[in-house]
Amino acid sequence: MKKRILTGIRPTGKLHLGHYVGALENWIQLQETYDCFFLIADYQALGDHIDEMENIKIAVRDVVLDWLSVGLDPNRSTFIVQSYVPEHAELAMLLSMLTPLGMLDRNPTLKSERERISNTSLSVGFYTYPVSQVADILLPKANLVPVGEDQLPHIEMTREIARRFNNRYGEVFPEPDSLVGRVARLMGTDGQAKMSKSIGNVIYLSDDSETVTKKIMSMYTDPTRIRATDPGHVDGNPVFQYHDAFNSDTQEVEDLKERYTKGQVGDVEVKQKLILAVNDFLEPIRETRAQYETNPSFVDECIENGSAKGRETAQQTMLEVREKMGLYYASKS
Ligand code: TRP
After folding, report:
1. Ligand 1 atom with minimal separation from the 41 CA
2. Minimal CB count within 10 Å: which of 69, 119, 237, 298?
């Protein structure tokens, strides 16, 4: 039997280049060897977007379109909407009883996210979302969770809670491994450490070539460089990080780097070559997306059929969980 993957994303917007090299690229490959469950975590998105139902609705479909356009295959893999499988909520609730508060307080990803949200608007649901994520992963008994680097503390928590459950009630859940993508953290177009929709420093997989051109032409480069004849820095320069990530002509990239550090090439030329590379990379993705955009009922089917299949697996796991925990009270059981 194939090993299983569960991974996912919150539906809060379209997917971008950072998602691609940080995670999606792995997912596409792993479909060959794993039974893959790809989750659209709408419950999780509600934790800090409860008043944005309309946006979530749009984003759920955008995520499906982005997935299809990069080559995630609903015939081989299972696309699941979290709230269509309410067992996610049931398992999250039960696992929350096995999770000490301190475990949440120690989670560094949650900690930095909480610092962004004021205490008055921090919901209980957001505070405890890592537990719900643990349930997402354990429900289909995933063996592997390919994710972006920021998600690693949640996978670590998953392992701890799986151990706690198994020790207490008997073996039910495998302890899943994590896998981070080729570029753990793609910088933003503004030079910040991370490409992020909330900062607005992103290039979307669905951006047209004109938008890509504009975004790259105004990208942050080496601030210490005033003239093209000044020696430039390649490290920490997002233009070169993107060349490394998306320009398949490695010889061109090496040549540009060499001339850049010697002050023999201007930023404009480096950016123009990057525009070509990124547009080459995105063109087939855009074409595929355009095809699926004309077929909304296909998107409906993906999430309905996928979620129905996900639910079957979830119900099997929940039977086992209830039995092991002893949640049966009839006189003859
Ligand atoms: N937290 C992930 C994100 O922000 C989304 C997610 C929800 C997830 N459940 C998951 C990722 C389970 C991996 C496994 O994108």
Report:
1. 7
2. 119
- CA triple 34-39-40, angle to 5 deg: 155
Atom of ligand 1 nearest to the CA of 147: 13
* Calpha distance 4→36 (Å, rounded): 6
On whether the CB atoms of residues 74 and 299 are closer than 8 A, the answer is: no
Q: Which of 4, 5, 7, 156 gets mutated to test ligand 1 (max ligand atoms within 8 A of its CB)? A: 7
| Mean pLDDT computed over every residue of the chain | 96
Residue 40 C-alpha to ligand 1 middle, in angstroms? 8
CA-nearest residue, atom 8 of ligand 1:
8
- Decide if pLDDT at 119 tops 90: no
* CA dist., res. 282 & res. 220, Å (int): 21
Looking at the predicted structure, is the pLDDT value of residue 333 above 70?
Answer: no
pLDDT (mean) for 223-237 = 94
| pLDDT at 271 exceeding the cut of 70 | yes
pLDDT-above-90 percentage for the chain: 96
Cβ burial of 208 (10 Å; 0-12, 13-18, 19+) is exposed
Length of the chain: 333
Which residues have any ligand 1 atom within 6 Å of their CB? 6-10, 39, 41, 44, 133, 136-137, 145, 147, 151
C-alpha pair distances (Å), 178 with each of 5, 141, 172, 221 = 10, 14, 19, 33
pLDDT digits (tens, 9 = 90+) for 188-197: 999 999 999 8
Residue type, 57: K
